[in-house]
C-alpha cells in the first residue's frame, strides 16, 4: 500500500519571513513543513513528532554570526534523533563553520540567500537517503532474524523468532520465513 503522507520538514529559523518563504517553497513542491523560531522549540518539535528532515539556521540571536547556537542545536538534534538528516543554513557561511557543521553531523550546508533548485535537491536527497536507511534497517532486522533462525535450526526445540514471530523447528526447515532465510544463506561450495 502506498502512503499518501507528505514528508514533513522541520524549519528552524528566527526570522518569520524566512520560515514563511521556505514553507511556501516546500508546499509548492509537495512537502509539508513545521516552522519554529528558536532551538528550544525545534527540540520540542522533534520530541513531539517525527520529521523527514530538519533545516536549521546557525544563528538565532540578533547580531550573532558565529554559528555556535546552530551548531549546539545540531548536536542536540543528533543526540535526540540520530537518524534525522539535518541540513544547516546561514547567511554568514564560511569554511570553518561549514566544516564544523559537517563534523558535528550535518548532512549538508546551505548558504542564504539560497538557490531554490539546490535547496530542494538537497532536501529531497536527504529525505530519500533517510527513507532508504530506514527500509534497509528493516531488511537488516529480517536478515538478523533469519540468521538467528539458521543458527537455531539444528536445535530440536521449536522456537519463535523475535523479529517475525514465526515458528521454526528442525523438522520444518522450510517454514514461512524461508523466503528471507534463503536469500541470506551463504553459497555452498
Structure overview:
- The chain is α/β, with parallel strands linked by helices and 189 residues long.
- The protein has two domains: 107 residues, Response regulator (Rossmann fold, 3-Layer(aba) Sandwich); 45 residues, no CATH class.
- It is 47% helix and 15% strand.
- Strands 2-1-3-4-5 form a five-stranded parallel sheet, sandwiched between helices. A two-stranded antiparallel sheet has the order 6-7.
Quick synopsis:
It is built from six helices and seven strands; from the N terminus they run E-H-E-H-E-H-E-H-E-H-E-E-H. With 189 residues, the protein is an alpha/beta fold. A five-stranded parallel beta sheet has the order 2-1-3-4-5, sandwiched between helices. A two-stranded antiparallel ribbon has the order 6-7.
Features:
189 residues; alpha/beta; Rossmann fold; two-stranded antiparallel sheet; 47% helix; disordered C terminus
Please write out the topology.
Layout: E1 8-12, H1 16-28, E2 32-36, H2 39-48, E3 53-57, H3 68-80, E4 86-90, H4 95-103, E5 108-111, H5 116-152, E6 159-160, E7 167-168, H6 178-184
Parallel strand pairs: 1-2, 1-3, 3-4, 4-5
Antiparallel strand pairs: 6-7
Helix pairs in contact: 2-3, 5-6
User: What number of domains?
Assistant: 2
For the record, the CATH architecture of the largest domain stands as 3-Layer(aba) Sandwich
Q: Report the principal-axis shape.
A: globular
Highest CATH level, the class of the largest domain: Alpha Beta
Amino acid at each position: 500500500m502506498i502512503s499518501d503522507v507528505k514528508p514533513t520538514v522541520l524549519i528552524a529559523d528566527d526570522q518569520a519571513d524566512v520560515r514563511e518563504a521556505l514553507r511556501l517553497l516546500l508546499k509548492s513542491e509537495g512537502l509539508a513543513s513545521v516552522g519554529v523560531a528558536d532551538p528550544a522549540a525545534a527540540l520540542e518539535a522533534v520530541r513531539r513528532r517525527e520529521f523527514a528532515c530538519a533545516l536549521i539556521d546557525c544563528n538565532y540571536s540578533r547580531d550573532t554570526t558565529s554559528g555556535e547556537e546552530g551548531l549546539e542545536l545540531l548536536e542536540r538534534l543528533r543526540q535526540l534523533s540520530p537518524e534525522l538528516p539535518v541540513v544547516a543554513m546561514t547567511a554568514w557561511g564560511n569554511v570553518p563553520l561549514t566544516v564544523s557543521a559537517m563534523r558535528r553531523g550535518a548532512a549538508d550546508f546551505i548558504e542564504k540567500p539560497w538557490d531554490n533548485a539546490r535547496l530542494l535537491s538537497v532536501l529531497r536527497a536527504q529525505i530519500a537517503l533517510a527513507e532508504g536507511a530506514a527500509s534497509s534497517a528493516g531488511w537488516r532486522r529480517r536478515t538478523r532474524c533469519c540468521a538467528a533462525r539458521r543458527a537455531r535450526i539444528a536445535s530440536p526445540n521449536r522456537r519463535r523468532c523475535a523479529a517475525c514471530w514465526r515458528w521454526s523447528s528442525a523438522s520444518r526447515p522450510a517454514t514461512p520465513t524461508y523466503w528471507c532465510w534463503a536469500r541470506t544463506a551463504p553459497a555452498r561450495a
